[in-house]
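## Example record

The block below lists the input lines for one assembly entry, exactly as stored, with component labels intact.
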Amino acid sequence: KASSFVFREAMGVAQHHDAVTGTEKQHVADDYAKRLTVGWLQCQVLVSNALSSLSGSKQNFVFCNKLNISVCPLTESASTFSVQVYNPLPRRITWNIRLPVNGTAYNVLGPNDKSVPNQVVPVSNFTKMVRENKGYATSELLFQATIPAVGFSTYTVTKEAAGKMIHQRRSKWVQQYNQQMEK
Amino acid sequence: SKHLTITNEHVEVSFSPDTGLLKMIRNLDKGISLNVAQNFFWYNASVGNSESSQVSGAYIFRPDSNKPFPVSSSLETYTVQNDLVQEVYQNFSSWCSQVVRLYKGQRFVELEWTVGPIPIEDNWGKEIISRFDTPLKTSGIFYTDSNGREILQRRRDYRPTWKLEQTEPVAGNYYPVNSRIFIKDNNVQLTVLTDRSQGGSSITDGSLELMVHRRLLHDDARGVGEPLFEPGDNNKGLIVRGKHILYLDTPESSADFHRPQAQQEFIAPQIILSATGSKPYREK
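Predicted structure tokens for the full assembly:
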């Protein structure tokens, strides 16, 4: 059970001119942050309930609030996970997803079970410095999601096994070698 | 020293081989290019002077000089380039860095900046800006939005309803930027979208700046009763990470881009994850 009222109340309090402009005393700033956090936690339950209802299956949904500094315990550790992307806009959009991971290659399946092009890029030293010891991802998985208007798309991410990767690289190398030999 | 350029189907961004700073943006669809020098600067916060005892604080922005100091004049860069994204990582200092990013199919340049903790060991309060310098002849005119709705024309050292006697050449020309700021001439418009409300201005023609972070050591005596010290974790000061979206087009076409894009930034998609056969994050 959860209510959006807590978050609405926190947002109401945060309409004070000091909250809008950041001219409040430090302990008031801390209180604003606490109110917003408590409200947001309640809304996470609401969104989870809504998604469970819409998707027809009850899952333990996870909200990673530190994706901007490449921290997400789930994506860092899981070998397979689902990504639900909700689009509140009244038009279809393409959105770039970046998720902290520790693998080197991933398969991403889109809503129609078609493979989605993806890349794994290293987490920058800037980010590692900022996040300190909050997360341990070495890389970020990057793909483009297409989301319908006022709706959501689900993507399934699976880490490729190391053996399969080596096999693929070897196959590619053998293919290139054969092409060279043909030339 | 190699000439560094990143490009996708719509935009090309060049960097100075000498400094590593952003140098030029080209809209490939329209064949428009503009020299844009971007750098981070800091204003030294005023502690009062002979003209006025007003210090820079939470309410009042008052630099002690009209000329900000560059955070760095040359920087370390490296690049990541693949099919989906082209990135240039710029390290300005131990407390200021930026990624210039072009995603596949994207019509704009994304600048993801990370600023802080602002050092104050020298006992100088600092107000950090990101500044874009262009050769555009703007005649003191720039534009900021009003809560993402009406775009208002701002004119340097001028107020539309009274005769202004300008006493603060920098702070007196700062305006709220809730979602966007732009400058233009007859042919080209440079628009910057923000991901949060910031202060912004155009202090010289062709220039555009946004204040991204500030840390101050004195109370400005306007009621808050404490300096904007921003202790953060362990009293080190806050680190702030945000985005500026840079878009180059003609003045006639720019609104077709910045209106829907600003909406997309402010009512952004939400990512929700769920595990399928995951392991615990830590063994213990």
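The longest strand of chain A covers residues 93-101. Chain A has six helices and seven strands.
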